[in-house]
Amino acid sequence: RPRGSARMAAKIARRPRLQPAVLLLSLLVPCTALRGAAARSGGAVACIDSAVQHRVPRWRDALPRGDELDDRILSVALPSIANLAVIPLVGAVDTFWIGRMGDALALAGQGAANQVFFSTYFLIAFIPTITAPLVAKAAGGGDIDGAARRVCEALFLANVLGALGTALLVLFPAAPLSVVLPPTAPAFEYARRYLRLRSLSLIPALLSSIGFAAFRGLLDNVTPLRVSLASNALNLVLDPVLIFGARLGVAGAAVATAASEVFAGGLYVALLLRRRLLRLGALLTPPRLSDLLPLLRGGAAMLLRQVALNVAFVSATRRTQLMDPTGVAAAAYSITNQVYSLGVVVMLAMQAAGATLVPSALARGGGGEGGAAGGGAR
Questions:
Q1: By Cβ atoms counted within 10 A, which residue in 24, 206, 351, 369 is the most buried?
Q2: What is the CB-side half-sphere exposure of residue 35 using CA atoms within 13 A?
Q3: How do residues 245-256 score in pLDDT, each as one tens digit?
């Protein structure tokens, strides 16, 4: 019984050799009873406190409580969800307008070209993923110059890798396309035309991602949201104008998307310069290898993850392209991918929130025992 067990705990607690028994009893009786016994015994307080802490399941400690920590997570995650949702929404609009052309092969070609473009993009986009926590760590410690160095290093590396990717996709689009689409496929010509024009925006897209990561590292998700809304509004306007008004078809959709990404990349460069997170001279100066090591070490695991994901997506895209020569199956797969992209943004936003809040808290001395002040024992 709880009362009897508490009295027994008080007696045992007076004998240091028997304190492990108190630890065992603390798992069986109410915490308040044991704390009362511990107050009288003196020597077993630490033992009982440890037991009481272990009684709280870790999953229950992780549940939302409506406290300050939850407010901080939501303040970062909700704008990220809105920001990340803009891109698949606009992609769905692209799919809608190309679908209005009434040609399944055009939609299949766009789907294959987008898969090649995004596979190339995400193989390089491990850089922004690592940039955000590095900037958050520097900015959280008040080192704005250090945050600016991280941004410049990431931009330099992205420009070099992006230039190589752009040269491959623009000059030799048939080679990467053949991975997902046989050269004899009826949709191949649509895909090649779309990919060549779309790939002109690979470097601006990487600039935008690093700019987004930099502002996310500063825990500012509102500025990237405004940039995304402005650039994608431009895409929404240009899509019907270029596809139907200028009669460019699939190529018009590629030009519209590329133009919006160039616009977004330019906006991010201007905003980074204004926040003193970017120095144009640093973009032309190769950073030292020792400065790049945090990016490369942290990016290695992310690169392997991106390779694994892209192998799966490329394989699925190729199989759907081979299923039906009319392009109907591939067009359906392209539409399904857009729906998937809309759903996955919530997971990506929560991932981004953790990647920025944790290093920022650690840099401010919020890790370990000191971090309990901000979010309780969590």
A1: 206
A2: 7
A3: 999 999 999 999
